[in-house]
Write the structure tokens for this entry.
Amino acid sequence: MSRSPKMPISRDISVKNPSLPDAEQEELLESRSSPNLVTVMGFDKNDVLFRSDSVGTVQWRDTSGEIVALLVRLRPDIWGFSKRGDDDWPEVLKMYGNPDAE
């Protein structure tokens, strides 16, 4: 199957946000192409709370502080998701859960 010459392979669809200072806008635009970067944002998509390329596990906790879900980097471009109630939850929690707040 051949590609149509009219169909672009990729394109940049980033939109500048005029409410951000130029330095922050450039940092946000550059972060979109950084390999293995995980960004945590607040309610507003421009409210960046945390950014790192070293993230291996993301944990969600309920109101009592117990882990209810995990997102785990299995390989550079492969992530696994598990949640409380899954058949293998006890094993996943034992391997990847961090009891720092339990």
